[in-house]
Every structure is written in structure tokens, then in C-alpha cells.
Amino acid sequence: MECSRSLLADPAAASLYCGATTAARRRSATFLSCSCSTARGPATMSWRFNESVDRRSAVPRVNGRNGNGHCGRAAAAREESSVVLEAVEDEYGGMVVDADRLPADTGGFARSLAASLSYWKSAGKKGVWLKLPLDRSEFIPLAVKEGFSYHHAEESYLMLTYWIPDEPCLLPANASHQVGVGGFVINDQMEVLVVQEKYSDSTLLGAWKLPTGFIHASEEIFTGTVREVKEETGIDTEFMELIAFRHAHNVAFQKSDLFFICMLRPLSNDIMIDEAEIQAAKWMPLPEFMEQPFVQDDHMFRKISDICVQRLRRRYCGLTAHHVVSRFDGGASTLYYDAAEHQRGDPSCDAAA
Questions:
Q1: Coil, helix or strand for 294?
Q2: What is the pTM assigned to this prediction?
Q3: Are 332 and 218 in contact (CB under 8 A)?
Q4: CA of 96: how far to CAs of 1, 31, 61, in Å?
Q5: Per residue in 174-223, pLDDT tens?
Q6: Hey, which end of the chain has fewer CB within 10 Å, N or C?
């Protein structure tokens, strides 16, 4: 992210001058327009400040001057470390700190962070997004000491936030859901592709279940389902329809869970399991699959199986994936809706309508 040099904090302290050389040290600082990412998506608004500021004004006053009565190298070093952190303003009046332009040491970071918060408060800013890369983890306790809170973490960084106004925080919360998928794969012999997992809940020991897993970041529901089936069983498949989905809460780490069941058409037949996760896999006759105790005794599994059977009998029509572009976010996305609307010639959907 390319941005200009940051401004000094607390311009009100500009009364501290050191002779005629002060005028030469004055400069106008401007944040250039640049793009950055917020929790709500890309933002390109810039923070522009054209006021001429004395760079020495950020040096704290001690005994009326800089503590030693002159402007030495120590004061210059403190002056350099007291600049406001590089940041751009998002579309909601918040500041997004540039994670690639952080100070090099903890002392400089602590001073710059305090100066930044002071300036942003006086400027009427709202939320602050502070992304700390893994190699800057020593800055975390300093940010927490200033009042920052954890927002979310990934493998390479921790995101912290700070809400400036004395009012309820309006920053969006961390992602609240995980997304899982299951593939109902059935061949022309009315056999269902099933697996036994190596590591599973005691209630599923010995049970034959559908291949399942979690989708990756930026992965479509239907492509994630095809991938999971391929990884666990070696079977290539083609997405047909999204049959149903389940919504549950307080699943893993108190997160909610969305689980999508997709019907897939097999494109191959020879099974090759992922031995790291799967104990066994096979093609099982549909009646045998349906008669398993874990299916019959569990209302959710029984209902999912019944829906899939109704689809095979052409008494139910699922949702198909359609690529669309919306002005809302300007990007491409996938919309799932009833195939009957656009496939009137499909006898299965006509029968279900």
C-alpha cells in the first residue's frame, strides 16, 4: 500500500521552536489516495491534511523546552518516532493502519500509536483497524495497553480494533460462521458413495456416511463439495443441485455452522481414499444406506436422506448455481435458486412444481 509520510500528532504543541532553523523544518504533509482493505471490503478514500505542521511540535515539552535546553540529536530522534502512523480513512470515517509501514521497534511504535490516537480523536475519527503481522507480535501488548481489542486472527497476522467515540461501537464483528458441505453422489445403479472416517464422534463409529468437509476461503459451495469428494474418495463428480442446508449454533469455538448438501453426478467409478482421514469408502445400495441405524435414528440425517430420495423420484427440485454481477459490491458472485424457473423442460422440476 503506497501512502505518503504521516503527519505529526498534536499540532497544538507547535509553540516549541529552536531558533531560525525551525522555519526550514516546516513542511506540508499529505496522505495520498491509496487502496486498502477493511472488514467491510476495499476502501479507496484518502485522509488528506494540508495544514503546515512543525515537525518539532510533537516533541514533549519538559521544563519549558526539550529537557536539556537545546535541540539535539535525541530530540530529533524522538521527533521522528512521534509521527502519526501511516493510515488511510475508510468509507465509514475510520482509520486503517498500514501494516507494511509500522515503526521498527517497540518504543517507536508505542509513541506513534499514542500520538495517532490523540490526533485521530481530535480529528473526529471513529474506528481504528490495526493489523499486526506475525513478525510484529511484540507490538500486541502495547496496543492492548492503549485500549485495543482483538478482532480476529489468521496464520500471518492479528487484527485489533479501537472504537474512539463515546458511544456504542459500530465496527462489524468477526466472522460468525463456518461453512461445511456434504456430497450426495449416486450412480446409475442407485448406489451412494459413502465413507467411514478414521476420526469421528463415537456415535458415528462404524457408520457409512456421505463425504463431508469445509470449504476454503473464496471457494464456491458447489466447487468445494466436488473438491471434498475428490480428496476423500478419488471420485470425480459434477455438481447438479444444492438440495438443502442446515443452520446450527455454538458448534466449534462457539461459532455457528452452515452445512450445505449438494447432489453430485459421478464422472468416475474407481475409489482411491485419502488414507490420512478416511478409513474406507465404497458404493452402497441406496436402500442399505437409508436403513442404517444412524440414519433412521437421527431426525436430521433421515430428513436429508429423504429429500435426496424425493429428488431422485422427481418430487423435489433443488437449487442450481448461477453466476451474477451486482452493483452492490461490483463483483461476480453465485446465486442459487430453483432450477424450475429457468429449466421448464426438466421433467423432474416440472413434476416438483
A1: helix
A2: 0.70
A3: no
A4: 11, 12, 29
A5: 999 999 999 999 999 999 999 999 887 777 778 899 999 999 999 999 99
A6: C
